[in-house]
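Input (structure):
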């Protein structure tokens, strides 16, 4: 991508262009993943929290729209369980437990509304797992 004008100069179509005609970079759908987290962390800042505010690292269980418990996992940072960490640390380390904690303070619909205010126009379902970038495809 040209950083001066945004022009796409090249893209990779998929993992096996010899056996598949699908151009994944143009037509494939992917989860947004942790790229949603800066939007999520904007929320508490708008409500008066600060990047240095601390919370203890712990698993968080949320109730999904079907009334079922949902507990996200982390691939690392288990050595920090019980320790206080800042919101800044949570975002910098893409910690799923801190993200789930933030989601517990608000609603999935509020996160969608916030993301729309930033100009995000794609499909965003108001589900608790949106805090980790999981999008429910129809």
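Output (sequence):
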């Amino acid at each position: 991508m040209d950083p001066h004008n945004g022009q796409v100069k090249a893209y990779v179509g998929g993992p096996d262009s010899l056996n598949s005609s699908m151009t994944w970079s143009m037509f494939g759908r992917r989860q947004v993943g942790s790229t949603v987290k800066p939007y999520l962390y904007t929320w508490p800042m708008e409500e008066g929290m600060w990047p240095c505010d601390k919370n203890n690292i712990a698993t968080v269980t949320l109730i999904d729209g079907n009334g079922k418990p949902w507990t996200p996992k982390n691939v690392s940072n288990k050595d920090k369980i019980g320790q206080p960490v800042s919101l800044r640390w949570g975002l910098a380390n893409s910690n799923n437990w801190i993200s789930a904690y933030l989601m517990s303070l608000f609603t999935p619909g509020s996160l969608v509304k916030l993301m729309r205010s930033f100009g995000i126009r794609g499909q965003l379902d108001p589900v608790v797992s949106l805090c980790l970038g999981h999008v429910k495809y129809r």
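Notes: The chain is about 30% helix and 5% strand. Strands lie at 54-56, 62-63, 69-70, 84-86.
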